[in-house]
Specification:
heterodimer, A: alpha/beta, Rossmann fold, 2 domains, B: alpha/beta, 6-stranded mixed β-sheet
Chain lengths: 398, 184
Amino acid sequence: MKASPEGVLTGVHFMDGDHAACEGAIAAGCRFVAGYPITPSTEVVERFSVRIPTVGGMFIQMEDEIASSIAIQGAAWGGAKVMTVTSGPGLSLMMEHIGLAVMAEVPCVIVDVQRGGPSTGLPTLPAQADMMQVKWGSHGDYQIIALSPNSPQECFDLMIRAFNLSETWRCPVFMMMDEVVGHMVERVEIPPADQIEIVPRRWTTKKPSEYRAFEPGPDMVPDMAKAGDGYKLHITGLTHDERGYPAMNVPAQNRLVRRLSDKILKNRDKIVDVREDGCEDADIIVVSYGITSRVAGAAVEMARGLGLKVGSARMVVCWPFPDVEIARLSRKAKAIVVPELNLGQMVGEVERAACGDARVYLVDHAGGSVHEPERILETILQAARDAGLGFKTEAERS
Amino acid sequence: MSRSEIRVGGLGGQGVILCGTIIGKAASIYDHKHSGMIQSFGPEARGSSCSAQVILSDEVIGYPYVRNLDVLVAMSNDACHKFLPELKKDGVLLYEEELVSFPEGTRPAKAWGIPATRFAEELGRKLVLNIVMVGFFAGVTGLVSRQAAEAAVRDSVPAGTEGLNLKAFARGYEYGRELVGGAA
């Protein structure tokens, strides 16, 4: 279905990523946000709190992030499309309830505008160091979806996709922004509402007497019923059967936990998004995501200028990890270079997928700024030397 | 690729960020180039020196920060001397001449001053000094067109103040054109 025109700020704007993310959420149909403002994500909820009363929704500033992450789940079962917004320290507090959202299959979007950590770290400066936390931070086995925008425009565009994915697959979807993407101001084009495709809530068409709250459809995802509409709903974090009642035994655990993972992993082709540029005949491929992909683009251009065949692959979706795509690229290339604003997180996944077919090089960064393109170039050149590839020196080039 | 790097510096409250925003908006929305603006964010943005970094480019901007500063717009003495070291050798300095001073022999070669605060006061409101500086920037550097900058001013200022702000822009623009010897 198309977005409701109410609240869609159609037009060309010059706005930062935080504001664009807020507009994306409103356009996607988000009508409930509970949050505890934290730098550098504050502008998202600040704007939402001003904008949402004009389109008939609600913002609650909660007492903390633990409360925020559960209030949105109540609102989701009440029928709303929901979101919470935070940064590292707040994300740490949300871990318990992220597990509940996975277990109870609550469609929700969690925005993490990443800053330097651990702990309170660097409140006003960027990092990409929560990439593993969103995947593994809550206990137990599970899968989530995480998107990584690299511009204010993508903060808008991917926010719509985030909501659509959360409604389709009924799981927490993370918007992994960072301080730079969140605070940099650029051109943002918001299309007319009738050009924005929206996935509605999967409401059941069954009668209350036939409805079983956790009975999966052919895509492994159950349909929802709104609390208060006469359906029997039992929602629990305990291992449950298809009625939603606790069933704490080995077969029920095997059936449920496996399905929660499989509904993401076996549908991964409908979720992953890797943008490749010049990878067809590349000897070296730079794999990146988020703000780092923009800096990497500058380094790739420099390396091409020196006569190297360098491709670039950007993971717009980081979780589920695009292992099939990375494996394919690593069979063709001699080396893969992974720059990220942490001391090595997604690079481990790249190594796992590459499986020794291409040598993998990390360009790390402790956070607080973005890479200088020259640092990424240096590693590309090192990879070229190790692979015995010839290239021009800067002097020969000029 | 043509890339221009600009830093606007001044005191919190002078409208430094809005000045940078208008330059960026003029380029990206009305001149159809790429531009990105990053404001200093943190304790320094609240009261003392603050600044905005603006990148203008013909292509998608990769590295988002200033690396090789082409133009420094300085609205205070502190900001001027704090950021002057990053200005490239033949870079352009635009400064509020009644607020900025240089120790003997330290004024850069390509430096253009304007009494922007006084002009703003003459127009009736000291507040519009940042818009005088936007005009001065457009007039001296030509990095954004007059038409684009005026459109960006118009939709960035509070409703009802467009006339005053456009006058402030024109004052800065024409003063700048005269200084560099172009027709206003």
